[in-house]
Amino acid sequence: SKRSLNFVSSIGVTVFTKRVENAGSEPVSKVLLAFPNIQAKNLAAIRAFGTEGKVKGLSSVLPIEVVEPSGVPPELTFFSASLHKPLQKGKILHLDVLTVFTHFLQPFPEEITQADSQLVVFQDSSHYLSPYPVKVQTLSIRLPGGRVESYTKYGNTKLVDSELKYGPYEDVPPFSYNPIIVHFENNNPFAVAKELIREIEISHWGNVQITEHYNIVHGGARLKGEFSRLDYQSRPYARGVSSFRHLIARLPARAHSIYYRDEIGNISTSHLWSDSKKTQLEIEPRFPLFGGWQTTFTIGYGLPLQDFVFSADGKRFLNITFGSPMEEILIEKLIVKVVLPEGSKDIDVSAPFPTNQWQEVKYSHLDIAGRPVLVLEKPDVIPEHNLHFQVYYKFNNISLLIEPMMLITGFFLLFVACIAYMHTDMSISKNSPSYLAKLQWDEVQATVQQIQGIFHQCLAVHDKLETSLHDLSRTGDAKSCKAARKAADAQFKELAKELKPLLLSVQSSPQSYQIWPKLDDLVAKERELQDKLMARHATVVDSVEKKQRGQDIENRISSQQQKIAALRQEVESLLEYLSEI
Amino acid sequence: MAEPVANAAAPAPAPGRLRNAFGGVLCAFTLILIGVLAFSIRLFSVIKYESVIHEFDPYFNFRVTQFLSKNGIYEFWNWFDDRTWYPLGRVIGGTVYPGLTLTAGSIWWFVNALNIPLSVETVCVFTAPIFSAIASWATYLLTKEAKGTGAGLMAAAILAMVPSYISRSVAGSYDNEAVAIFALVFTFYLYVKTLNTGSLFYATLNALSYFYMVCSWGGYTFIINLIPMHVLLCIVTGRYSSRLYIAYAPLVILGTLLAALVPVVGFNAVLTSEHFASFLVFIILHVVAFVYYIKGLLTPRLFKMAMTLVITVGLAVCFAVVAILVALVASSPTKGWSGRSLSLLDPTYASKYIPIIASVSEHQPPTWPSYFMDINVLAFLVPAGIISCFLPLSDASSFMVLYLVTAVYFSGVMVRLMLVLAPAACILSGIALSSAFDVLTRSMKFQLSKLFDDGPAISGNGSPNGSSASTVNTSSSKNEKTEKSEAAPKEKQSKKNRRKDKEVTESVSVKPKKEKRLSVLPLEASIVSTLLLIALGGFYVVHCVWAAAEAYSAPSIVLTSRSREGLHVFDDFREAYAWLSHNTDVDDKVASWWDYGYQTTAMANRTVIVDNNTWNNTHIATVGTAMSSPEKAAWEIFDSLDVKYVLVVFGGLVGYPSDDINKFLWMVRIGGGEFPHIKEPDYLRDGQYRVDAQATPTMLNCLMYKLCYYRFVETDGKGFDRVRGYEIGKKHFKLTHFEEVFTTHHWMVRIYKLKPQKNRIRGKLKKLKSQSSKTSSTLAAGRKKNPWQ
Fold it and tell me: Coiled-coil stretches, from where to where (chain A) (predicted)?
């Protein structure tokens, strides 16, 4: 058996490679793997690949489950890998087991100053803890480079470059344990997300919106004493080497509308590169994270719908990665919420590993029934869990139109209500003084308009008189002129007759106090104007009949002419005023 | 010629109504556009920066709104905030003007009831622009009441973009003034409306609107003093009418009752001198009303007799009452006035007695340039507006003039009250521009029609022909005119209406004609001056946009500077607050100068000692004293206040001028006001404030200096302060009682932690040192061994 441990990052990855031989007489269908409880508690992922035969060939993933065989020490946790077909006597199986442990490395010392680099310690057994006897085994540990403070030395231990080798050990009995401790420098970012909430919201208008709320802490050795910005800025590599100042997120290609903020606003320190295959977002928290410091932030981005939502057999399904797009981050608690559009039915999920699941309802953007939310929760998520999962659901495209229709109906009803309000009489009492006053005022206005019409007719008659005078000066036909005057006189009388009842009704109305004086004025002025016009007309016609010279006529009527002009203007302005009411 | 006129006479009413309807729609559309303009001109801050709350006070309002939306209205009224003014706390529910918070809270609630997921922050950011749009509509209504639609539209358009108002209502400036200006203008509108109509309905609305104003802003005292002044003015100038009574009496009664419902005002609504004038005028109004009533009942001779009788008795009673009141008022030390009101009445009061009020930059008197910055060309238009108001002086226009005059005085005392001047200036400028356009377009119309008439007048000699042509001409040209000329006749009409209200005389009908004839200007002059006025308006618009985009949209928590490499962002404040909120204990207390109190509680969620609500002078003086004391004394003060972190703002590295060193003299002054051992002259060298080599030792040893300049010299080797422009006085020193825990990227915020109290044993150690060197050496060795200690 070979075992190699990789501590290049902050998360411990172990790979076993085993040759298993069935030495018994019965065929074996299961292989047991044992871990101490302390390690098993932090086991984030375990995967086994088996190949039968001597030569390494195509391997297949073996299903693994937790088992509790009888008669073993309680401090051990057992996993059993089921073989696809039982292993016959004497046959050999190659088994590769990949395990990922979190919190495998403990910072020691637990508190360091800004200048120190971070040392971590790792404890395990140099022998593989096997329930079976092992013929030959080795252990190799890959370290990130840098200083190695100390390691447990046994006979055949070698430290070459940054690789530590134990073994080979031969003929080790079952459950043998040989503790080792390695203490070494590791300045990798110990980024730990205490909690990450990913919200994936599907809109069938063409967008998948992803919002990720991070609560990140530096999980390494805690900072002790002062933080000096001066030291950090002037010698960033010497001072503050254990801190990290940025994280890199690899977002899917065609991600758009990317934002990065926290609860007090936008964070301006981020960079974005994108090409056709991926989008890379480098974000810097507001401050560099030293050991024990934490911060929260939110990133969000939109993805094109057709890249992630597909349809098959009358159902639609979302196919998207489960974990965080951040590189090298350990998530202690990941909650993935898939918000499906309102009206989705028959929701079903297939995830590559067990998760806690439940459903919620979210109300957003004018929802009535709410959107179904599928929540998946998983503790201790590592980049190895960044696999695709699928959510199947049924959704009818007609439901898309519900909200626009609702808005249209709403506004339509609003306008209808407005129109109805404008056209209905909402006064409480039909006898209230203000209501009566309004009615009377309407009446007065109508009458005034009639009166205006009459006055306009009067003015037209005036103009006719003028024209007749004009004709007179051209033709000297006094007779037709007199006839015109007579006609005008008759018309004036008729109009005055019409005017009288109207004036009376206006005068009697209590609402007319505003316009009455104007009207009165108008009537008086107009009467005067009429008289003047008639008088002038008579004078002119007389003088023409007496064959006086044009100059004399002009002289005789010039004073009248001025008055007439003034009166005419006054009447017109009064009329204009009335029409404006 | 005659025939078409005769025909047109019959269907005349129909086009008239259509024209009115068209005018109404055009007016409504213009108002909507003005609202959009008012809203969108305030969005520069969101576009250039981000959707974030600005400055200091808005953060407090934001925090209160968050609390309200989370816990509901009852919890809000009972809210005792233990995160500020430690260890005193503050009763928020009883000490805030709740109008703004309740408004934004109800908007948020409404929007969320419709399932539109807007955060409280978004609602708060956009409250001010929304209310500016509403305020411009209120301005339209108010001006329309005084001078007609044209002036109203003009004033609304001007108010929508007046820089003075923009400075307080850009998106994110979530402050009381944002809604208060709307409430102020709307209250005035309802008052004028009641005065014009005499309707009790509007009087009641007026009281409600006044209530909203009381809820929103302490400036409501301006209303409750200005309206009585106007009432008094009306009485004195013999304009008393029943409408005046209806406009005023319900306002005082209902308004005062409602105002007393607001916890922050409470019994102040009847007890303090700010409200005294309203009651006095209330009494006077009743006396006058009574006199008018009696006058109606009695014959003139009897009336005279009654008058003499009443005056003698009444005067005696009045004197007695006034004497009692004066005695009551004089018995209180501030004469019943609050400090802020007193500093308004006596501009030198604050600098003499209340350094805290004087220390705020917005409480300083403005400089001349700030008038041109804030109201720009309006400053020139306002006098014209006043003249226009006097041309036919009505109740409404006299109110405008009075409003302007008082607002000018108050803006002259405090920069902040420039905001009250802005609506007045806008209204009067709107009136001025509208009347100017009115006159100019009318004379243009007149001259043009004459120009067209000249042709027929030469060929034929009949003037009537010409005049009929001119009527046709006018009516057709009128239809083509824009809303301005459309509004002009309406304005005239309302002007006349009001005059009619007062006295129905025949002369009225003659007057406007005279005006018309007088105000005809030559065609060229009117065209040129119209163009000039339009150019003036254009200049104003350009200035406003510039002010909105460049001068007033910075959120002040994020600073930017443009350099050759592009935009550089200084986000240090939020960096520090984020650090505090994530990496200190929830109950840790943070001490800083009071400017940063609101932001610390809102953004970092940490308890502060003092904040921008400067209600306790002693507490602020304590912090000021600590900042101006030497390290050890400061440590003791802070430790007694259970402070764990001290936050200072330092601009010396990047040249940020409004930092704590520049504010430091106020800390000394305020601290010295309460604790006489802090003396201002100790910090000044020959009356000059400096921190270079010439500075006094007291200055160079005080906590503020040390916290700001700790290890500053190591940045460039000289310790050159970019704000002050010289090298600092004391360069190398160590902190003994404080340790640096965080400094932001540009050093603008530095946070220090109080070192824990020394072990008792070390105190003994010093005494023991003299006695036996052996014990001490072992102890010291023991300490050395433990490097973690």
Answer: 550-577
